[in-house]
Write a structure and sequence with these properties.
With about 100 residues, the protein is an alpha+beta fold. It has one domain. Strands 2-1-3-4 form a 4-stranded antiparallel β-sheet, covered by helices on one side. Strand 1 and strand 2 form a beta hairpin. The chain is elongated. The chain starts with a helix and ends with a strand. About 15% of the residues have low confidence.
């Protein structure tokens, strides 16, 4: 096997990992959903010092950013849900946005 081929393998692996981190419902992400079907946001999570995903930090960021996206639509109450990592269940949320 040539050195050239060995140098290519890590590049493919790294690129594949970066793409997977932005897919909804995968390990290392928090995803917000509208009506349980339409993705609002996908937030990639960092890993903590112990090597485990820091889901609490990225879920906090997901909630803040999702509320911002929804409230840009105008006043009203918006129902949405979020998913942590590859968990099958989604947790229901409700956001009320006030008029300016």
């Amino acid at each position: 096997m040539s050195i050239r081929k060995l140098g290519f393998v890590p590049i493919v692996f790294i690129a594949g990992s970066a793409i997977a981190a932005d897919k909804p419902g995968t390990d290392g992400t928090a995803t917000s959903w509208e009506s349980g079907q339409k993705v609002i946001l996908v937030v990639p999570c960092d890993k903590g010092e112990d090597g485990a995903w820091d889901y609490s930090g990225c879920v906090r960021a997901l909630r803040e950013r999702t509320v911002g996206v929804l409230c840009k639509r105008g006043p009203g109450t918006y129902k949405w849900s979020f998913q942590v990592g590859a968990e099958k269940s989604k947790l229901d949320q409700s956001t009320t946005c006030k008029g300016g």
